[in-house]
């Protein structure tokens, strides 16, 4: 049997806009040819007999039917066989300057041991396993161990409450939970094991809890149910056969961030997801064989799944696992890690960039960051000011910035510039990735063919990385993504396609501001506010307005140390800023200075909460369990807010 051992050799090289356009055209005109070529970057036990099996009338899609493969084999074994000593994982620990480097050989052995442990506790192909763990190597081992034996992992961000965890354990029907005694996040310690105890209290469903020991702290162990992970791993061999999975067998369930409401259990399958994660990782990050890929995302989010674990490891790339917070002990930490590990790519979120930028440029002075080639951003629109800081200050104008638009449901990047290829436009995610056919629709469902239009961002056809269903609720899947515009996948986001055909994501359509009949995206107004020197971050929401229909209410966070003579004067300056940047139509009607914005645990602004507060509807705030800092609610609810002026 022959397996691809040099995945990079099978990814296309894109060196110019002509290369991009040629390949993009081929990906739409001859999708079977394009996508069967791309599958060669993976090692298949049986090659697929068809590429895509998509029923355009329904929402059921299958990719690479007939193929059999294993995600762990692709991410670990084939590299362990050919380059066992290469570093697979650099673990950047919470303590400054502390690193652990794990080779592909060691990764394979640890994963196999953990896979044998799971089997010994009865985990079989198709079973769901909940991973509620800190950013430690054991979490990566656990994901890959599940994949190896065909179990479906459900990683739950280790910052969620017991109640949120319980809900996710029940929804996915997990009988086994992996956790740690505690997690270290900056100066804080999080008692994970206690939280798990509360979450599974009285649940007969969960028969086994495996506990990694991150620190020396003692935790109560429930006899018969709880086991220390190191002790049980010690009892097992470091070999474990892989389960050859059908291409459409589930790989993982991952709950969305909950920015818009109740989280959805997004299900991804094996073949298509891996092809797409590996291809986007190689092309969007201009991947080269000796790269060190540093993505700061937590594994509790899709960015961690696709661009810390699966994309990089399937490509045989050294990947960095970040345990700490970007500003611990101070705002120079990320840059120092970049130097220490010699990172060639950095992938982070606008929320982190905005806070590091607000801390001041002095924090950039302790590092050179000369190894960086690609600077990427995802999760929210990146405002042009943060984009320019990333490009000019962090990358010293030498590294390419890529603003990648995508979702938990899309598996991988959907819209993005390609580094050193696509002309840069601060604030725009620019062009669709290969195989992604975008459509912009008006609210009546008409496709807007021309450039220079705004509307609802949809995708016309299936791509291999797309989610297949919401776990246990295919109807909700259909209704959430395919009902609004029948036959099209609806992202829920609004966009502007400019005269050059470049995409600017303007925010969620639920948040769109319809002021006197003009549609304004939240991103536009927020970017304009952020351009002001006093402002670290801003969020705007619509409020009822007697004349305009909708008025704009702005929440602003000031930069540290900013002083102003009077709030009225500051408001005047901000209004002037917005008028100048966008036009009088976008002038906010109300302002409020707050110490911080409410965000999901993945760092996204929760505008639905701000809108309710601005409208005085504080009785029913909806699902607030995904809020990162619940204590902020006291401040937000404290002051009565004046309505539109
Ligand atoms: P939920 O679906 O539960 O509300 P969520 O949508 O925040 O949660 P994710 O799947 O993590 O969960 O986030 C995807 C969303 O993030 C996109 O729909 C979009 O609103 C936003 N987003 C991601 N990347 C970008 C980007 N580069 N530019 C603009 N928006 C982005
Ligand atoms: Mg979403």
From TrEMBL:
<dbReference type="GO" id="GO:0005524">
    <property type="term" value="F:ATP binding"/>
</dbReference>
<dbReference type="InterPro" id="IPR011904">
    <property type="entry name" value="Ac_CoA_lig"/>
</dbReference>
<dbReference type="InterPro" id="IPR020845">
    <property type="entry name" value="AMP-binding_CS"/>
</dbReference>
<dbReference type="InterPro" id="IPR045851">
    <property type="entry name" value="AMP-bd_C_sf"/>
</dbReference>
<feature type="domain" description="AMP-binding enzyme C-terminal">
    <location>
        <begin position="524"/>
        <end position="604"/>
    </location>
</feature>
<protein>
    <recommendedName>
        <fullName>Acetate--CoA ligase</fullName>
        <ecNumber>6.2.1.1</ecNumber>
    </recommendedName>
</protein>
<keyword id="KW-0007">Acetylation</keyword>
<dbReference type="InterPro" id="IPR032387">
    <property type="entry name" value="ACAS_N"/>
</dbReference>
<dbReference type="GO" id="GO:0016208">
    <property type="term" value="F:AMP binding"/>
</dbReference>
<dbReference type="InterPro" id="IPR042099">
    <property type="entry name" value="ANL_N_sf"/>
</dbReference>
<dbReference type="InterPro" id="IPR025110">
    <property type="entry name" value="AMP-bd_C"/>
</dbReference>
<dbReference type="Pfam" id="PF13193">
    <property type="entry name" value="AMP-binding_C"/>
</dbReference>
<dbReference type="Pfam" id="PF00501">
    <property type="entry name" value="AMP-binding"/>
</dbReference>
<comment type="similarity">
    <text>Belongs to the ATP-dependent AMP-binding enzyme family.</text>
</comment>
<keyword id="KW-0067">ATP-binding</keyword>
<dbReference type="InterPro" id="IPR000873">
    <property type="entry name" value="AMP-dep_synth/lig_dom"/>
</dbReference>
<keyword id="KW-0436">Ligase</keyword>
<feature type="domain" description="Acetyl-coenzyme A synthetase N-terminal">
    <location>
        <begin position="20"/>
        <end position="75"/>
    </location>
</feature>
<dbReference type="GO" id="GO:0019427">
    <property type="term" value="P:acetyl-CoA biosynthetic process from acetate"/>
</dbReference>
<keyword id="KW-0547">Nucleotide-binding</keyword>
<dbReference type="Pfam" id="PF16177">
    <property type="entry name" value="ACAS_N"/>
</dbReference>
<dbReference type="GO" id="GO:0003987">
    <property type="term" value="F:acetate-CoA ligase activity"/>
</dbReference>
<feature type="domain" description="AMP-dependent synthetase/ligase">
    <location>
        <begin position="77"/>
        <end position="462"/>
    </location>
</feature>
């Amino acid at each position: 049997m022959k397996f691809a051992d040099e995945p990079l050799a099978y990814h296309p090289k894109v060196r110019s806009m002509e290369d991009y356009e040629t390949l993009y055209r081929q990906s739409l005109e001859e999708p079977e040819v394009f996508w069967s070529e791309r599958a060669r970057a993976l090692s298949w036990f049986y090659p697929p007999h068809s590429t895509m099996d998509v029923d355009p009338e329904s929402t059921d899609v299958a990719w690479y039917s007939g193929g059999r493969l294993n995600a762990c084999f692709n991410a670990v074994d084939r590299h362990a066989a050919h380059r066992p000593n290469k570093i697979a994982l650099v673990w950047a620990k919470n303590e400054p300057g502390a690193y652990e480097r794990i080779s592909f050989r060691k990764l394979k052995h640890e994963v196999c041991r953990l896979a044998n442990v799971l089997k010994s506790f009865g985990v079989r192909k198709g079973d769901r396993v909940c991973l509620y763990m800190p950013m430690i190597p054991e979490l990566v081992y656990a994901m890959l161990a599940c994949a190896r034996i065909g179990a479906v992992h459900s990683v739950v961000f280790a910052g969620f409450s017991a109640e949120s965890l319980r809900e996710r354990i029940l929804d996915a029907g997990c009988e086994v939970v992996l956790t740690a005694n505690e997690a270290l996040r900056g100066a804080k310690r999080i008692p994970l094991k206690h939280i798990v105890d509360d979450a599974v209290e009285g649940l007969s469903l969960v028969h086994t809890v495996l506990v990694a020991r991150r620190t020396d702290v003692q935790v109560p162990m429930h006899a018969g149910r709880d086991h220390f992970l190191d002790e049980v791993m010690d009892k097992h061999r470091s070999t474990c056969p892989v389960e050859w999975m059908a291409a459409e067998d589930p790989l993982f369930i991952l709950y969305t961030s909950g920015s818009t409401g109740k989280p959805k259990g997004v299900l991804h399958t094996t073949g298509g997801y891996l092809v797409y994660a590996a291809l986007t990782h190689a092309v969007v990050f201009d991947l080269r064989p000796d790269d060190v890929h540093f993505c700061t995302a937590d594994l509790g989010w899709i960015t961690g799944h696709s661009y810390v674990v699966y994309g990089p490891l399937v490509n045989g790339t050294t990947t960095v696992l970040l345990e700490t917070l970007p500003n611990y002990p101070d705002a120079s930490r990320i840059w120092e890690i970049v130097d220490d590990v010699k990172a060639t790519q950095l992938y982070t979120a606008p929320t982190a960039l905005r806070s590091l930028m607000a801390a001041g440029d002095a924090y950039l002075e302790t590092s050179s960051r000369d190894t960086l080639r690609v600077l990427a951003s995802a999760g929210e629109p990146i405002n042009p000011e943060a984009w320019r800081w990333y490009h000019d200050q962090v990358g010293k104008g030498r590294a390419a910035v890529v603003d990648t638009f995508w979702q938990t449901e899309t598996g991988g990047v959907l819209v993005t510039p390609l580094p050193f290829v696509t002309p840069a436009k601060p604030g725009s995610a620019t062009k669709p990735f290969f195989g992604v056919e975008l459509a912009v629709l008006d609210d009546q469902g008409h496709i807007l063919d021309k450039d220079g239009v705004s509307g609802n961002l949809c995708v016309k056809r299936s791509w291999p990385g797309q989610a297949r269903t919401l776990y246990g609720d295919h109807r909700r899947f259909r209704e959430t993504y395919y009902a609004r515009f029948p036959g099209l996948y609806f992202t829920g986001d609004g966009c502007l396609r400019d005269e050059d055909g470049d995409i600017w994501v303007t925010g969620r359509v639920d948040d769109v501001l319809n002021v006197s009949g003009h549609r304004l995206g939240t991103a536009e107004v927020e970017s304009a506010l952020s351009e002001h020197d006093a402002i670290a971050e801003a969020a705007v929401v619509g409020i009822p307005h007697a004349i305009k229909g909708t008025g704009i209410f702005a929440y602003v966070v000031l930069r540290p140390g900013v002083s102003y003579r009077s709030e009225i004067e500051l408001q005047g300056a901000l209004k002037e800023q917005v008028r100048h940047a966008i036009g009088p139509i976008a002038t906010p009607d109300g302002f409020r200075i707050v110490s911080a914005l409410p965000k999901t645990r993945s760092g996204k602004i929760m505008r639905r909460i701000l809108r309710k507060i601005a409208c005085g509807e504080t009785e029913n705030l909806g699902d607030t369990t995904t809020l990162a800092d619940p204590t902020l609610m006291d401040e937000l609810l404290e002051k009565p807010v004046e309505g539109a002026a």
